């Protein structure tokens, strides 16, 4: 049985013709716990390794899962100081694929998805000291993204110049309406609270849009981030949106059960406050509005998870090996968003 989503013979011929040193025969394996764009490990007969990305199967929402755009962004980031894989190929040839394919370099290192043991919530081969090093490396990598010179990188036209928070609220409210599988009234009420409390945007930077522990590869030697992955939500906007997103994906033991997001609750990982402190040290930014962005990111996370659930219902072949979000998990994220909104004073 072949790999779902790939014509292995046609894709093998394409890759071996790219001049990247790939030696036939090639093998393909679906990897990662990611539930959006599909990711595959590629291996050749000589031990070479690459990574292949394509959109998910089935019905897609407008403007979502654009791997061509992701290819453009990652190509532009080469040499900027942001740790990213090297782009090696892009094809939309219908003789090869039914959706765009992107080939990129393989980056060796630790991905938290690979070492978290579900159930017990233990990180198998990482000491508390290494977990701390990994955690503190994340806001440093985030700062490197926000330092990118947009003009030099050719990314000034990547997204609208309109205020970012309003764009996000409009976009993700629409996504919710298109993908929801069950009613969650708090999604609408949170959108209203966020709309009433939008902070003034004073600068525009590159924004990753989905920056968290499972979207980076870290060095097996010292824990520093050696590659930032999954750029499909990248845009231009307020840099604090990414910091808020990191906090949303960083539950602490004091938050109670964290469902699928559990790694950061383990011994050694820094607290959310420590992540913010490192980011401030790196960027010297005023982060007084980060509470708003934390709430917006939790709200957005619930909507993203709902989209994953919808795609899995529509086409079960999209389900990653580790499973995916449930309605109960989505409800728990919404509950956390409401509690955070109350805590930071969003009226």
- The CATH homologous superfamily of the largest domain is termed Aminoglycoside phosphotransferase (APH), C-terminal lobe
Main pleated-sheet profile:
5 strands, antiparallel
Give the CA-CA distance, first to last residue: 54 Å
Radius of gyration: 20 Å
Order of helices and strands: HEEEHEEHEEHHHHEEEEHHHH
- By CATH, the topology of the largest domain is Aminoglycoside 3'-phosphotransferase, Chain: A, domain 2
How many H/I helices?
A: 11
**How much is the average pLDDT?**
90
Structural class: alpha+beta
Shape category:
globular
What does this structure look like?
There is one protein chain. This protein is α+β, with helices and mostly antiparallel strands and 347 residues long. The protein folds into 2 domains: 8-105, Phosphorylase Kinase, domain 1 (2-Layer Sandwich), CATH 3.30.200; 110-344, Aminoglycoside 3'-phosphotransferase, Chain: A, domain 2, CATH 3.90.1200. 40% of the residues lie in helices and 12% in strands. It is built from 11 helices and 11 strands. It has helices at residues 8-16, 67-76, 112-115, 128-146, 150-153, 164-179, 185-196, 240-248, 272-283, 290-314, 327-344, and strands spanning 27-30, 38-43, 49-54, 87-91, 101-105, 116-117, 122-123, 205-207, 216-218, 225-228, 235-237. The strands form 4 sheets. Strands 1-2-3-5-4 form a 5-stranded antiparallel sheet, with helices on both faces. The longest helix has 25 residues, at 290-314. Mean pLDDT is 90; it is low at 117-122. It comes from Prescottella agglutinans. Residues 28-256 form the Aminoglycoside phosphotransferase domain. Keywords: Transferase. Pfam families: APH. This is Phosphotransferase family protein.
